[in-house]
Specification:
Its main location: membrane. It is found in: Membrane. The chain has about 425 residues and is of the alpha+beta class. It has two domains: about 90 residues, no CATH class; about 240 residues, Growth Hormone, Chain: A. The chain is built from 15 helices and six strands. β5 and β6 form a beta hairpin. α6 runs antiparallel to α7, α6 packs across α8 and α6 crosses α12. The protein is globular, with a radius of gyration of 32 Å. The chain starts with 9 loop residues before the first helix and ends with a helix. About 20% of the residues have low confidence.
């Protein structure tokens, strides 16, 4: 019997090559996703945030002017003044950690209105302060919480904008500059005409308008737009799964292969169709891509209480502190509070003790905000540009603040030496 030699397995290569070329193609699938409105009601949110940024930091900005009659009449030491103001900064910083989880639980609008009420109460109660120690409660605790809630304006604007986010945030931040300029001058005017109690009551009433700005923070889900995007996927031999592969010998000794190929499922492929009929657009979207619209007041998940949900979300946010970049930004802001904010707070007291009027001290506090406005406008124009590195801009700003404080210290030393020698 003649031995049949097995034939070369050329069938395998040619067959697989044909299959590879058959499935090597590019498919374009249309998907639909929700995107921020980037305009529309978003500009009303910018207006409300701009208004909130003017009013939210008011108590801290006018502290040195508005409360100077109470503090000076009781001959309060600079140490106690520093304790009152820095406790305000501490409460503000700690309360900021809980703002995001609170907004997720109860909605932006309710938290913003609540912050406006707390901010107003901090100044209204301070009008009846029997002694400076009472300010530790009325100003430091209530004012710190109100100021922390007021800064959700930046977070709300970020939710409504994508392409024009830098411009929207720049407009919002300019509200803080206006507050820095108007606050001391307005506080001095109120003190001259209405006294300490009258000025505090008027300021408290003005701060209630922060609730009006907060009322404009409608849920973002009401204004999301549906955007059609195209996702290109390339199918080739690497995207195939070869299954049920078996080999048999026929009578001629030629090996046959049975290949069953199944295409790998694409987890990002979601088809969408648009049907336009009588000006109506029907969108068919896979529920795995888009989440259901959230209510303004979302319920606590997994049947947990609201408090437990807030604490868990806060703890999750604090985990970001393990990253070096977050730590550096936090330490930079800490240095800003310790070095610049405290320095600016003490300037009016130093001028008053040097014999200058309260009006002069107020103007000195306000003029510094002009440069702040210029800097924020420049940053607004640059932040949306691809060539601009926001990180370097932040570092350069901190460098300018540090050099300005050091420069002022040397100027004061030079003035005192000049007075001591020549006068």
């Amino acid at each position: 019997m003649n031995k049949i030699e097995p034939q070369p397995d050329t069938f395998e290569d040619s067959s697989l090559k044909k299959e590879t070329s058959q499935y090597h193609k590019i498919t374009v699938e249309k998907n639909v996703k929700k995107v921020p409105p980037d305009g529309g009601w978003g500009w009303m949110v910018v207006f409300g945030s701009f208004f909130g940024m003017i009013l939210a930091p008011f108590p801290g900005i006018v502290f040195s002017i508005l409360f100077s009659p109470l503090l000076m009449s009781h001959s309060v030491s600079s140490t106690k003044i520093s304790w009152i103001f820095n406790f305000y900064s501490l409460v503000w910083s700690v309360a900021t950690i809980f703002i995001g989880p609170l907004c997720n639980e109860f909605g932006w609008r309710k938290i913003a209105i609540f912050g406006g009420i707390i901010n107003s109460l901090s100044v209204l109660l301070s009008a009846f302060a029997p002694n400076p120690e009472f300010l530790m409660f009325s100003f430091s605790i209530l004012g710190g919480i109100g100021a922390a809630i007021g800064y959700i304006s930046v977070l709300v604007v970020s939710q409504y904008f994508d392409k024009h986010r830098g411009l929207a945030l720049g407009i919002t931040s300019i509200g803080g500059c206006i507050s820095n300029f108007l606050g001391p001058i307005l506080a001095n005017y109120m003190l001259e005409h209405y006294g300490y109690m009258g000025a505090s009551l008027i300021f408290g009433a003005i701060l209630l308008n922060q609730c009006v700005g907060g009322a404009l923070y409608q849920p973002i889900e009401w204004h999301l737009k549906y955007k059609e995007v195209e996702i290109k996927t390339e199918d080739d031999a690497n995207e195939k799964l070869l299954t049920n592969c078996k080999m048999t010998d026929n009578l001629n000794g030629v090996q046959e292969k049975s290949l069953s190929e199944t295409r790998r499922a694409s987890v990002i492929s979601v088809n969408s169709t648009f049907e336009i009929s009588n000006s109506l657009v029907n969108i068919s979207i896979s529920p795995t891509l888009l989440e259901a619209d959230e209510d303004e007041e979302p319920e606590a998940k997994n049947n947990h209480s609201a408090l437990l949900s807030i604490l868990k979300s806060t703890y999750s946010s604090l985990k970001s502190l393990k990253y070096m970049r977050v730590q550096l930004i936090s330490w930079g802001f800490c240095g800003l509070l310790l070095g610049y904010v405290n320095f600016r707070m003490f300037v009016p007291f130093v001028l008053i003790n040097a014999g200058y009027s309260l009006e002069t001290a107020a103007w000195c506090s306000s003029i510094g905000s002009i440069g702040n406005v210029v800097g924020r406008i420049i940053m607004t124009l640059l932040s949306d540009r691809k060539f601009f590195n926001v990180r370097y801009g932040f570092m350069f700003g901190l460098f300018l603040i540090g050099t300005s404080v050091i420069g002022n210290i040397y100027i004061y030393i030079y003035i005192y030496i000049y007075i001591y020698i020549y006068i």
